[in-house]
Amino acid sequence: MIQVGIISNLCKDIDGKNAEKIIRSMKGRDMNPLVSIPVYQLLNIGTPLEEKELYQQSDLILVLGGDGTILRAARPAAIYEKPILGINLGQLGFMAEAEMADCESILDALSSDSYHIEKRMMLDAEVLRGGKSVSRSVALNEMAVAKGTFARMIHLKVQINEEFVNHYAADGLLVSTPTGSTAYSLSAGGPVVQPDMECLLITPICPHTLNSRPIVANPCADIEVEVQEKDRNIQLTVDGQGAVGLQDGDRIRIRKSSRITQLISLSGSAFFHLLRNKLSVQTD
After folding, report:
1. Range of 45's domain?
2. What is the model's pLDDT at position 90?
3. Catalytic residue positions?
4. Contact 77, 61 (CB under 8 A)
5. Is the same domain home to 160 and 218?
6. Residue 19 in 3-state DSSP?
7. What is the pLDDT of residues 218-275, one digit of tens each?
8. Across 159-186, average pLDDT
9. Which of 51, 109, 141, 226 is the most exposed place for a label (fewest CB within 10 A)?
10. How far apart are CA 192 and CA 22, in angstroms?
């Protein structure tokens, strides 16, 4: 029997109706739905587990929500090496593989092993303060060093493999994976990179000099970003979610993670076909 973990964003899945539809559709299939405590309390169906146990005991994870929900699920899923499939309940849904309308075909494919796994690189970041490590983070999309509530630009020094690259005067700086190239980095003017590649993207956010351009670095590169600002509200943000406060002189070391995200793909759709659809690009 396939143990299927179900992670549902109840802010988008109002009253758990989509989770309930998925769970009830598993009846008659060789599947056992594992659900979080909040979902079980709402629906009173499925096997209730604490989040850590849900990830540990699942063979695969269905994530109901938008890209943010998928990003939150990607980190624990990577720890326990579990593949995830995103079902879009949001708007753009770049990372989601399917829509709720595809519910029956999704379960048919999963129960018959008619899918493949796409492996996506992740990032590790470590914040050093006075030579001591004060924070460690893992991201699927990007690490962002950016200003908080104030309106003025910030100054950041960047090195790659201990070689000086540039001083950036900007609203911030992104270090992204290829998966993250279609997220914040794209909005900041970074390049679109096929997600099955391995590289590191460095994209300044609203740079205040014309010679500041995005950089594509080797996936084995060690990137160091040094904060050169006093009395500023600056943060390291991980996939647009968890934030770490930064101080003048802090150094953020970012490199390819040993962990990977496994995304379940059912359709095998070409990346640029998906890109055109999501960005509403007109074709001849």
Report:
1. 2-115+266-279
2. 75
3. 67
4. yes
5. yes
6. helix
7. 999 999 999 998 877 899 999 999 889 999 999 999 999 999 999 999 876 677 677 7
8. 96
9. 51
10. 33
In a domain, 284, yes or no: no
Residue range 187-206: average pLDDT?
A: 95
Considering the domain architecture, whether residues 63 and 185 belong to the same structural domain is answered as no
176 vs 188: CA distance, rounded Å: 11
Query: Cα(196)–Cα(207) distance, rounded to whole angstroms?
Result: 28
Identify whether residues 253 and 180 lie together within a single domain: yes
CATH code of 185's domain: 2.60.200.30
Same-domain check for residues 158 and 223: yes
What are the CA-CA distances from residue 81 to residues 51, 73, 140, 171 (Å)? 15, 12, 14, 35
For 57, counting Cβ atoms within 10 Å of its Cβ (0-12 exposed, 13-18 middle, 19+ buried), the class is middle
CA dihedral 160→147→182→256, nearest 10 degrees, is 30
Amino acid at 158: V
Domain of 36, CATH number, reads: 3.40.50.10330
pLDDT > 70? residue 74: yes
- Regarding whether 138 and 58 lie in a shared domain, the answer is no
Name the token pair of 270: 């070409």
Render pLDDT for 92-115 as a digit per residue (tens, 0 to 9): 667 888 889 999 999 999 999 999
Query: pTM to 2 decimals?
Result: 0.92
**Domains in the chain, number:** 2
